[in-house]
Amino acid sequence: MKSERRSHNRVKPDNIRAEISHHQSSEHEIDLIAEIINISRSGIRIKLSKPLNPTIHDHLKITMVLPESGVPFTVHGILKHKHSDSEYGVHFTDHISGSIDDILFECVSLNDQTLLIKSL
Q1: Which residues of 24-58 are buried (b: 16+ CB within 10 A; e: fewer)?
Q2: Residue 104, CB half-sphere, CA atoms under 13 Å: how many?
Q3: Stretch 79-86: mean pLDDT
Q4: Pseudo-torsion of CA 8, 82, 3, 110, nearest 10°?
């Protein structure tokens, strides 16, 4: 069994969609819809509605709306893993509009009425 090497826990949100923008070299920008599979402080795993042909280290822009508050959240990232033709792991870069803590807080729900709050 592999030991866990991640320094940030992953949160698996339910039914959160995002818009993904991808610049292909000097060509136009491609916009797609994606499902958020999981998210952490350092990155996000997405599954696109249709396959994209990115290469490792391509830059993506991910825009979503927080599920409870309706606040928009945008992050830029670098493609780090291709799990399949339409499923990718993206590492966040410095350009973030919104709060990672806000999205993680809103996505960590045990049921419709309960939120899990961890304290140190």
Answers
A1: eeeeeeeebebbbbebbeebbbbebeeebebeeeb
A2: 15
A3: 90
A4: 50
Structure token digits, residue 81: 């893993």
SS3 at position 41: coil
Query: Tell me: the pLDDT tens digits for 6-28?
Result: 566 788 877 788 998 887 655 66
pLDDT per position as a tens digit, 28-51:
678 889 999 988 888 999 999 888
- What is the number of other CB atoms lying within 10 angstroms of the CB of residue 110? 8
- Cα 14 to Cα 51: distance, rounded to the nearest angstrom: 21
- Residue 86: left (phi > 0), alpha (psi -120 to 50), or beta? alpha
Any idea what DSSP says for residue 42? S
pTM: predicted TM-score of the whole model, two decimal places:
0.74
Which amino acid, 7? Answer: S
Burial of 73 by CB count in 10 Å (0-12 exposed, 13-18 middle, 19+ buried)? buried
